[in-house]
Specification:
This protein is α+β, with helices and mostly antiparallel strands. It has a domain of about 80 residues. It has twelve helices and six strands. The strands form two sheets. It has a four-stranded antiparallel sheet with strand order 1-4-3-2, with no helix packed on it. The chain has a two-stranded antiparallel sheet with strand order 5-6. Helix 1 packs antiparallel against helix 5, helix 8 runs antiparallel to helix 11 and helix 9 packs antiparallel against helix 10.
Amino acid sequence: HIMQRLESLLIKEGTNLNYLLSVKGSEQLWFPLHNAIFYMRPDFMPKSEKVIRLKSGYEYRFKNGRWTSKRLGGISGDGKQLLSYIFKRMEQLLRKAAKFKYKLNADDRYINKDALDKLLPGIGSAGLLREIDAAVKEFYINSKKTVITVDEDRLNRIRQNALITQKKLIVNPEEDSADESPNPAPKLSVPEIEIVADIPLADTKAEATVAASEPEDIWESLVSQLDELEAKALKLLLGGAAVKQIQDLARDSGLMLEVLIDGINQKAFDTIGDTILEFTDEIVIYEDYINQLRTAIERE
């Protein structure tokens, strides 16, 4: 990146980096095709001075009836000094930016600044050095960037699939109602109800009495399903008997206390849909059912 930026700058100045860093050579005689059996007749010689510059960095010149060649270079002497400075300066600035422990100092005293000023009249040697610093800074900033690339083809496929899913999920209310009832049922006319007789108040009271007595029948049904031992235990519990008394009753009949309690609760659950006894340290009858059980036991 840094060398490319310098190359772009030098091209704008009418030169290039290869020319700037090359060692300028002296002219030497050059004979075209000197190893071939070839003779150039004098009438084929160029009529005037001719200069040919190749990208390889060589210049061929025809002058005074002879060819000469020389290697082109921007600076007299060794162009490696300038190249060495460029790389040292790059490393110096990168170490400083990265806060590297060991520092490096690039000395520009060995650069032929006068020659650079002549070759680069637009920016001079100072402009070239500033461009090196700017290129290094730009390179360091770009190296720390996080670049996210997006696959447009894959993104388009995701969008298309999302649209298909959206169309499947969206339902038109009119179409939905039409599908559910394509042939709406005709409205039914409800005839008016005519009261032909009054219900006697006495009959109403009788029905209420029957309805009120139904729950008591359930409790009586529960009590009737209990065997003699279970009914006796329930009577004792309603009378406030202690756990030991119920336990002795069960033991005398050859049962465990837990089996006796479970039997009563199972029949209660089958009849009224709930258990009536809770057995922890004591045997407790649920308060909501005490009155109904006592009434059913007395009737029994």
